[in-house]
Amino acid sequence: MDNLLFSDSFINGEFYATDSRFSVTDPATEKCIIAVSDIDEQGVNNAIDAAHGAFVKLKATNATTRSDTLMRWYELVMQHKQTLAALMTQEQGKPLHEALGEIDYGAGFIKWFAEEAKRSYGDVIPATDDTHRLTSFKQPIGVVAGITPWNFPVAMVTRKVAPAYAAGCSFILKPSEHTPLCAIALAYLADQAGFVKGAFNVLVSQRAKQVGKMLTDSAQVRKFTFTGSTGVGKQLLAQCAGTIKRTSMELGGNAPFIIFDNANLDDAVAGLMAAKFRNSGQACVAANRIFIQRNVLDTVLNKLAAKVAALKVDNGFAANVDIGPLIYPQAKQKIQQLLQDALDKGATLIGDNSDLGGSFQNPLIVNNVTPAMDIYHQEVFGPVLSVIPFDDEREVLALANDVPYGLAAYFYSQNIQQVYRISEGLEFGMVGVNEGVISNPVAPFGGVKQSGLGREGGHQGLNEYLEEKYLCIKV
Ligand code: SIN
After folding, report:
1. Which sequence positions are flagged as catalytic?
2. How many other C-beta atoms can be found within 10 angstroms of the C-beta atom of residue 319?
3. Each residue of 254-277: pLDDT tens digit?
4. Do the Cβ atoms of 402 and 353 come closer than 8 Å?
């Protein structure tokens, strides 16, 4: 197996080491994988300067050249798929087959934006008199900085860096301190693919606040993009206000998953299993509140309980594993607190909640959840299904929308009028209709309300890194 295990930040095409180190830990074994160096202030400033220098060069390149470079990056990521996936399972914990799927998904963004690089069209605007010609065209915003989370250590990086490079922007990435290894490997491969030096810098640090502050305060950084919690997103937005940066925010969700009584119940249960248990439930788009129409509740619960009981919890490298460890022990503690609160307030538990040790959590179903319980309002971010029985369509639509978030929603129905009513009525950026897996590099991913700003993926994803310039020419 080739070696893509690196321990230092990557700035201007070179590794940058410091004396201060911290451990990146395997969540399954709780053992240190490698001690990585924590970036210092000088390193952050170097990265900003390098990205600025790279932007000057990049904006002079043509779209075809950038597209070809991205395509080489895509090919290298795919060539190293096994190694990258193993690195991901080690630092993040997800089952190896899911990590392999994430490499395909993440590389898909690189390929998509390699293609979209060539399609950044402008407009010809019909003139309002005989002496002017009006047009508009797009130019790269400039230096971009971003912070990415630990739950998808490859895909959350590529879906920001690939469109930035396609547009002609340089990038400074601060990946989660829990999963920096995939990010460094991606930057190394981008360099091998021929990225302009300094166009993709990775800052490894466990001091996210300080590094984030330096990046948001810098006037050289013209755009900030973040995937993570709504609380941190609000703080970063406030910090970006000082220099009026463009921002993209992919924040928290509290996805409803509605099963109507006319649904194909086997399909609905299969869709729910996919929407809930991908990455052990650690996704912002994970189904969080499961609304089941009361007259099919028992049937659905019986089907679900059988499937949930069959899930295998183990180290992500074990054969046939479905659920890996959670990212760290505190994640399990939070789930246990949510469960206790729900049970104290009258919910009922289906499944075995015995302690598996470490960060391993058995998948569970909690029935009769109500809005009085914390588990209803917070993202569980783990393998626990909260079930809320409902009686009619109007009631469930109001409940589904009654949260400050609006990222993903799902529902199963075979009634075409209902499909339109609910699709239009749900206040969410993405809706899965008779489908539990909606993420796709070719489609716009993003939320409304407090779930964020902007879209990633799709042709929309490129525009997030472009400014439109209007030309008024007197003839
Ligand atoms: C997330 O929900 O955390 C991102 C997952 C995705 O891109 O599907």
Report:
1. 250, 284
2. 7
3. 999 999 999 999 999 999 999 999
4. no
Residue of 225, 228, 212, 103 whose CA lies nearest to 167? 225
pTM for this entry: 0.97
Compute, in angstroms, the gap from residue 267 CA to the centroid of ligand 1: 22
Edge-to-edge order in the sheet of strand 132-140: 123-125, 132-140, 466-474
Residue 59 main-chain phi, psi, to 5 deg: -70, -15
Query: Rounded to whole angstroms, what are the CA distances from 346 to 90, 358, 366, 367?
Result: 38, 28, 10, 9
Mark the ranges of the chain whose per-residue pLDDT is less than 70: 1
Tell me the sheet residues that pair with 364.
Answer: 384
- Distances 404 to 253, 371, 422 between C-alpha atoms, Å: 9, 13, 18
Task: Identify which of 194, 206, 37, 131 has the alpha carbon closest to the alpha carbon of residue 472.
Answer: 131
Pocket test for ligand 1, best of 230, 277, 442, 445 (most atoms within 8 A of CB): 445
Q: Return the sign of the alpha-carbon dihedral for residues 173, 177, 179, 182.
A: positive
Domains of the chain: 2-251+451-474 (3.40.605.10), 255-441 (3.40.309.10)
pLDDT at 153: 98
Which residues touch 338 (CB under 8 Å, ≥6 apart)? Answer: 373, 374, 375, 378, 380, 384
Q: Which residue has the tokens 């959350």?
A: 156
| C-alpha torsion 274→276→279→284, nearest 10 | 120
Ligand 1 binding residues, C-beta < 6 A: 151-152, 155, 283-285, 439, 445
Q: Please compute, for residue 158, the number of CA atoms within 13 A of its CA located in the half-sphere on the CB side.
A: 30
Three-state secondary structure call for residue 406: strand
Name the residue among 54, 2, 5, 249 with its Cα closest to residue 147.
249
* Residue type at position 75: E
State both tokens at 460.
């929309």
